[in-house]
């Protein structure tokens, strides 16, 4: 049998996975398994016979035990289901991310906190981002963003007044619009010495805010509005975000007052 055969077999009837999961917890007789998985004894016996054909179980003293192969299969399938659950939890995040962000493994975001825009509260991720920025305890912030929004201004201005230095990477077009719309304010902000601004010729599809111990990921919809914000302290997520930030910064150039 092939791996696809086994995957199709387990997906073909919910009771099969429940029986396998129950045996992963402890060996059991068919009658006890029937009670545990809420199925008839005949159904359980049929599943056990199929497991035996695949070498996943052995019978000792009336009880069925997982073999080494069966244990590995049960663990792998449990991990697979957990991954699917995590992808479903992060569906709104991945829906707003570009295709080149597919290497951001959902398993890395197991412990992340996520806020997404809803019809009832379209600004939920914005408020979440602002609250997280205000709570940062750091000496330096590195930020990559496709937009320059006044919604975030107060939170980042507060960090600046506390002596936190910010490196900000924006698309070239965004920088030029900010310069042209408010030239006096633009020069004044850059002249304060609390902000290093870079403009990048590469399209920015994912917002990244990096602090000492965490990273905030911002996913934007087609309308340019913040669709989801992720707060993570996972080192793998930080490494992924840092690589993305540095790639844009290194391809860009420093903007002077």
TrEMBL record:
Show where the HVO-A0261-like N-terminal domain sits. Answer: 5-87
Every Methanogenesis regulatory protein FilR1 middle domain range: 122-251
Question: What Pfam families does the record point to?
Answer: FilR1_middle, HVO_A0261_N
Top-level taxon: Archaea
Record's protein name: Helix-turn-helix transcriptional regulator
What lineage, starting at the top, does this entry show? Archaea, Methanobacteriati, Methanobacteriota, Stenosarchaea group, Halobacteria
């Amino acid at each position: 049998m092939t791996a696809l055969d086994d995957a199709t077999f387990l997906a073909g009837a919910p009771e099969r996975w429940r029986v396998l999961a129950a045996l992963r917890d402890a060996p059991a007789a068919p009658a006890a398994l029937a009670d545990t998985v809420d199925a008839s004894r005949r159904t359980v016996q049929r599943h056990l016979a199929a497991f035996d054909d695949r070498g996943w179980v052995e019978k000792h003293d009336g009880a069925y035990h997982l073999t080494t192969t069966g244990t590995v299969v049960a663990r792998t399938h449990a991990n697979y289901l957990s991954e699917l659950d995590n992808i479903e939890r992060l569906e709104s995040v991945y829906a707003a991310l570009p295709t080149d962000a597919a290497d951001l493994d959902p398993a890395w975001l197991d412990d992340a906190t996520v806020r997404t825009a809803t019809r009832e509260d379209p600004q939920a991720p914005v408020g979440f981002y602002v609250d997280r920025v205000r709570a940062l305890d750091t000496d330096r912030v590195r930020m990559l963003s496709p937009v320059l929004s006044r919604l975030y201004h107060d939170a980042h201005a507060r960090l600046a007044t506390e002596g936190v230095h910010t490196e900000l990477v924006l698309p070239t077009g965004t920088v030029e619009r900010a310069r042209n719309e408010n030239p006096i304010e633009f020069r004044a902000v850059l002249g304060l010495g609390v902000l290093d601004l870079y403009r990048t010729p590469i399209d920015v599809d994912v917002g990244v805010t990096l602090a000492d111990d965490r990273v905030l990921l911002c996913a934007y919809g087609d309308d340019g509005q913040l669709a989801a914000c992720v707060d993570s302290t996972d080192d793998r997520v930080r490494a992924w975000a840092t690589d993305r930030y540095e790639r844009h910064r290194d391809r860009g150039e420093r903007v002077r007052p």
